[in-house]
TrEMBL record:
PANTHER family xref list: BIFUNCTIONAL DTTP/UTP PYROPHOSPHATASE/METHYLTRANSFERASE PROTEIN-RELATED, BIFUNCTIONAL DTTP_UTP PYROPHOSPHATASE_METHYLTRANSFERASE PROTEIN-RELATED
Highest taxon, organism lineage: Bacteria
Cofactors required: a divalent metal cation
Cited function: Nucleoside triphosphate pyrophosphatase that hydrolyzes dTTP and UTP. May have a dual role in cell division arrest and in preventing the incorporation of modified nucleotides into cellular nucleic acids.
Protein name: dTTP/UTP pyrophosphatase
Swiss-Prot/TrEMBL keywords: Cytoplasm, Hydrolase, Nucleotide metabolism
Phylogenetic placement of the source organism: Bacteria, Pseudomonadati, Pseudomonadota, Gammaproteobacteria, Vibrionales
Uppermost EC category: hydrolase
UniProt source species: Vibrio ponticus
Family designation: Belongs to the Maf family. YhdE subfamily.
EC numbers on record: 3.6.1.9
Active site: 70 (proton acceptor)
InterPro entries from the UniProt entry: ITPase-like_fam (IPR029001), Maf-like (IPR003697)
Keyword Cell cycle among UniProt keywords: no
Places the protein is found: Cytoplasm
Length: 186
């Protein structure tokens, strides 16, 4: 019998993306604090969070294969988390306005024997944003729970002039890399 696959994420976007790969899986919630440690690079931070989520899932269900993932937005080595309020979102979107930034998504697949992590970095360019556009976008409610205060697959996609890398990683789960990792465990 094949081990069950668990997605350690409450993100509806990650669930939808994993469904696109055709795997049967269940979703579990893990309680992992998303706090960057002193001296931790953005790469190390996003890697650790995906690993912590996967390992927390393995602790809850030791006979399963667990997928943990995390996405951060990085602009000039500043990690842009989910906004705490409108002013925070406005500051982030102003920082992203008219320039390039990176979206880093880490995926960890783990079981009780091993774990493997891949980090996918995608460059994203934004058009210049007016204060009015930022305020209207905030009013939509979309930026409230998104890293960097935007969703490329939603209304925020109108701000993106181009990307280099994985679109799916920007949404929250790089499909190719996730599939390749799962093949190592199945």
């Amino acid at each position: 019998m094949q081990p069950s696959i668990l997605l350690a994420s409450g993100s509806p976007r990650r669930k939808e993306l994993l469904e696109q790969l055709g795997y049967q899986f269940a979703v579990i919630r893990t309680d992992v604090e998303e706090m960057r440690q002193r001296g931790e690079s953005p790469f190390e931070y996003v890697s650790r969070l995906s690993q912590d989520k996967a390992l927390a899932g393995v602790a809850l269900s030791p006979d399963s294969i667990v997928i943990g993932s995390d996405t951060i937005v990085v602009c000039e080595q500043n990690v842009l988390e989910k906004p705490s309020d409108y002013l925070d979102a406005k500051q982030m979107l102003t920082q992203l306005s008219g320039r390039a930034h990176q979206v880093m998504t880490a995926v960890t697949v783990a079981n009780k024997q091993k774990r493997e992590t891949v980090v996918v970095t995608t460059d994203v360019w934004f058009k210049p944003l007016s204060e009015q556009e930022i305020e209207q976008y905030w009013q939509s409610g979309e930026p409230c729970d998104k890293a960097g205060s935007y969703a490329i697959q939603g209304l925020g996609g109108r701000f993106v002039t181009r990307i280099e890398g994985s679109y799916y990683a920007v949404v929250g789960l790089p499909l190719y890399e996730t599939d390749q990792l799962l093949h190592k465990f199945l």
